[in-house]
Design a protein that fits this description.
heterodimer, A: alpha/beta, five-stranded parallel beta sheet, two-stranded antiparallel ribbon, 7 helices, 7 strands, B: alpha+beta, seven-stranded antiparallel beta sheet, 38% helix, 22% strand, elongated
Chain lengths: 155, 759
């Protein structure tokens, strides 16, 4: 089972190259070997929200395991993207963890209402961020049973 | 004053008329009286006679000088002297407010009867013994004679009818053959507006009298007492004896000697006796009721005078109401228009548009053929007005005019503003209301020049003449009161009080709308600024995070290869990113306090403060600070979250800035009731604040100490606390007697008094 999980991609929706690099660094540091698929702009997100038949091969077989979504995306509203993911035939079975700079309680609650599976802050503190990612990995990759999206090829 | 070389009479003109004797004559301290009575000046309170008029000898058979230092009994005999003494004592303070009839001194063999009238003047008592009328009229029956008159006066439906009736009644009661109501214009000239007279006397109705006819000192005296009576114009004045250096003030005395100008004036008018009563409106001299007797001298008995005086007082009391009657319908029309305009401004806040188009404009409801609306958006002209350029000229002049007040009114613009000569045909009258004090924006109304004929009683440009008598120049009043017609130009119909009030009311309404708009703009730009600060600081965080993270990568990957100095530099970069993060976080917090919508609810302060102290537990224990809570707190109607932030900031601040040894540090959290509401305070015995820094501590990121002293912090805590308090409707300020004396932070919460009485 573990090897099956480690084949499934972690999708990172993040426009900032530096933040993306730090996130990948933190995942690797936490021992994650899964493939990482990056969505860096609005066009890539639009593609993601179409039918899986249009998706790049890296996302289809097997379906992704987890989405890390940055709320502040140029040209796309993070909350809108979250909502669309939750209403998508395949994505609705994939947990979306919001990664944001805003600690405002209204922002946090709204994301949970829209169906976020978690919400972590991007602090200006590398160690704190690394610790948060480490906990996230421990929970979603090593504790809970993974969700299998509809139509996915069962292992 | 100039005299002509040939010694002939020189004409005094309108321009030098204020040289008139009367304006300079000290008519209130003449040291002389009229001869129809005796005056005694008494020392207070022992009523010793200080001065007596010379005619005590002819009227009482005792020379005036013999009465010096004597008692009243020495003049009137023991019985009447005692009666008068006790009447004075009984009158007490009532003598302060003017002449009071004390008693009638009956006639005895060889002496006629007198009316004793007393009043206080400074620190002496003036007692006047006025000769009683030969035939004493029956006592006045107020309900039979005066009350019906007052009822009829009240029933009149116009100012004119009211004044007509008033002069008719006084004509009947007083016995004078010519009674006139006289109204003052703003320039001090007067017009006869009502009269009742013996048929054969010539009419003065509608005639004007120049201001110098009743000069300022006389007007002051008229306003001071309800009745002035001169029974015989041709009299020989009687001096008070012994003569004193400082004459007593006879302003209110019944027997006071009148000005020589006044008596010659009356002689020139062929008048033998007068009685004058002021018409007062709202404490100001509106006009006079002037009674004249042409047939012969006329001494009006005390009783009749009292009746006339009572009537004059009633006339004054009803006057304002009657004057309002004439303009009632007009005022209703004007306020309806103002209401309409206010309604339009509510619909369309661009007042330049809403005041110049739609059902109502600034034109058409105020009795003026022309109007202008001048705003920053331009000039809109209505009806007959000066040109736009000329209106700009007026605006410029008005803006520089010395203290014009919010509403400016003149019926003679070209006299004040000479360029208006060019357009006096349309705008001799100007009524202007400035919309906001600091802006050259006006609503203006214009009235045309009204070339008209004024009927003067005699030539107003020559109200006095200089006669040379015995080689000495002397002013005398004009000899002729023949009708003299003057054509007046450069003047408009004057603006009525109710019109000026309407302009002021419109100005207030417009100012209110403008103020609301300005506030709205301010609120919007504040909100925009907050959004900007939020977005900007948010965006700053991203690169900052990048710098921080990559510096940390560098630090990790190069740790073993770098020198200590190089490692130190990387550490500095990382430290500075953290510091920058604190600052941005504070800025975000500050903007959040300004942006967040919040609801008000009852807040239990006892519970809130307990929670605040729990949160600061570590800080309190580590510093050994003792927290005093002298009294229980009330509930307040406020926002819990903002208020919690305020207390946390202030308490944490009070703990932080203290350098006393542990166990000596203390803070006190309390409140007190003040006339303006409740004041909450957090007092510490810490380092204190110098007076010049009391406000600086509230400036964002302003530090008064090195950053690593007193536990550091972003330097925005007090700024945020103040902003929170202000958003809650209150004020936050600091008090301190200086360094080393501790500091108290105090705040109010903008509660209404209704909130304050809640349990």
């Amino acid at each position: 089972v573990t090897s099956e999980i480690s084949r499934r991609a972690i999708v990172i929706i993040e426009d900032s190259d530096e933040d993306y690099e730090v996130t990948v660094w933190a995942l690797r540091r936490a021992g994650v070997t899964n493939p990482v698929y990056r969505c860096a702009n609005a066009a890539a997100i639009t593609e993601l929200l179409t039918d899986p038949s249009n998706w790049p091969a890296a996302l289809v077989e097997p379906y992704p395991l987890l989405v890390l979504l940055d709320l502040n995306l140029p040209g796309a509203d993070g909350r809108e993207t979250l909502l669309k993911l939750r209403n998508h035939r395949v994505w609705q079975a994939v947990p979306v963890i919001v990664v944001s700079t805003s600690g405002r309680s209204v922002d946090v609650s709204r994301c949970y209402r829209l169906g976020a599976a978690g919400y972590i802050l991007k602090p200006v503190d590398l160690d704190a961020f690394a610790a948060a990612i480490k906990n996230l990995v421990a929970y979603w990759l090593r504790t809970v049973a993974p969700s299998v999206p509809n139509g996915a090829v069962a292992a | 004053m100039a005299t002509t070389s040939d010694g002939l009479t020189e004409i005094v003109t309108a321009t030098n008329v204020d040289l008139s004797n009367c304006d300079r004559e000290l008519i209130h301290i003449p040291g002389l009286i009229q001869p129809h009575g005796v005056m005694l000046v008494l020392r207070s309170p022992d009523l010793v006679i200080l001065q007596a008029s010379e005619n005590t000898e002819t009227l009482f058979g005792i020379p005036a000088l013999q009465l010096h230092s004597k008692q009243l009994a020495d003049l009137l005999g023991p019985e009447q002297g005692a009666a008068l003494n006790s009447a004075i004592e009984h009158a007490g303070d009532r003598l302060n407010s003017g002449p009071l009839h004390l008693l009638r001194v009956p006639s005895v063999v060889g002496r006629m009867s007198f009316d004793a009238i007393g009043h206080r003047a400074g620190n002496v008592l003036i007692l006047e013994l006025e000769r009683a009328a030969a035939v004493v009229p029956p006592p006045l029956d107020f309900y039979a004679e005066i009350a019906p008159n007052i009822a009829r006066l009240q029933a009149t439906t116009s100012l004119q009818a009211f004044l007509d009736l008033a002069v008719t009644q006084i004509h009947a009661i007083s016995g004078f053959d010519h009674v006139m109501a006289y109204r003052f214009a703003d320039d001090g000239s007067g017009e006869v507006v009502a009269e009742a007279r013996r048929a054969d006397l010539s009419a003065y109705l509608g005639q004007h009298f120049p201001a110098s006819d009743i000069p300022a000192p006389a007007r002051r005296l008229f306003a001071l007492s309800w009745l002035r009576h001169l029974p015989e114009v041709e009299y020989v004045p009687v001096p008070l004896l012994p003569e004193v250096r400082e004459q007593i003030d006879m302003s209110r005395a019944v027997l006071r000697h009148v000005s020589v100008m006044y008596s010659s004036y009356l002689k020139n008018m062929r008048v033998h006796a007068t009685m004058v009563m002021p018409l007062m409106k709202a404490g100001r001299l509106w006009g006079l009721i002037s009674c004249m007797h042409h047939a012969a001298p006329l001494h009006v008995p005390c009783e009749t005078r009292t009746a006339s005086e009572l009537l004059a007082i009633m006339v004054s009391l009803i006057l304002a109401e009657k004057e309002d009657l004439d303009t009632a319908a007009y005022r209703v029309r004007m306020s309806a228009a103002i209401e309409g305009l206010v309604g339009q401004m509510a619909q369309d806040p661009v007042y330049h548009r809403s005041l110049s188009s739609g059902g109502f404009t600034v034109d058409g409801w105020l009795d003026a053929p022309g109007a202008a609306l001048v705003t920053e958006a331009g000039v809109v002209l209505f009806g007959k007005t000066p040109t736009e350029e000329q209106v700009h000229g007026i605006v410029e002049w008005l803006s520089g005019y010395d203290n014009p007040g919010p509403v400016f009114a003149t019926d003679r613009l070209s006299q004040l503003y000479p360029p208006a000569e060019a357009f006096r045909a349309v705008a001799s009258g100007l009524l202007a209301a400035q919309l906001v004090p600091t802006r050259p924006e006006f609503v203006m109304w214009f009235r045309p020049e009204l070339v008209h004929v004024v009927n003067w009683a005699g030539d107003p440009s020559k109200p006095v003449q200089v006669d040379v008598v015995d080689g000495e120049a002397r002013l005398t009043p004009r000899g002729s009161f023949e009708l003299w017609k003057e054509t007046v130009s450069g003047l408009s119909e004057p603006w009525q009080e109710c019109e000026i009030e309407a302009a002021a009311a419109l100005r207030r309404a417009i100012a209110e709308v403008i103020l609301v708009q300005l506030n709205e703009n301010l609120r919007r730009s504040n909100a925009e600024l907050d959004s900007f600060a939020y977005a900007a600081s948010h965006d700053m965080k991203e690169p900052l995070r990048g710098i921080h993270n990559f510096a940390r990568f560098l630090q990790q990957s190069t740790e073993s290869k770098l020198t200590a100095e190089e490692r130190g530099r990387i550490e500095t970069i990382i430290r500075l990113t953290r510091r920058m993060d604190d600052l941005i976080e504070a800025l975000l917090e500050y903007s959040r306090v300004g942006r967040t919508e919040f609801a008000l609810a009852n807040v239990d302060l006892n519970e809130l403060i307990k929670q605040t102290l729990d949160l600061l537990e570590t800080q309190i224990t580590e510093t050994g600070t003792v927290v005093l809570l002298p009294r229980s707190f009330p509930d307040v109607r406020s926002n819990r979250a903002l208020l919690a932030g305020v207390f946390a900031n202030l308490v944490s601040n009070a703990i932080k800035y203290n350098d006393l040894p542990k166990q000596e540090r203390q803070i006190e959290i309390g409140w007190r009731a003040d006339s303006a509401g409740r004041i909450f305070y957090i007092r510490d015995n810490g380092i204190g604040i110098a007076a010049q820094h009391l406000e600086h501590v509230f400036q964002i990121f302003r530090r008064l100490h090195a950053r690593n002293e007193y536990g550091g912090g972003s330097g925005a805590g007090l700024t945020i606390a103040r902003r929170s308090v202000e958003r809650l409707g209150g004020h936050l300020w600091a008090e301190s007697a200086g360094p080393g004396t501790g500091t108290t932070f105090l705040f109010t919460l903008g509660e209404t008094s209704a909130d304050a009485v809640q349990p």
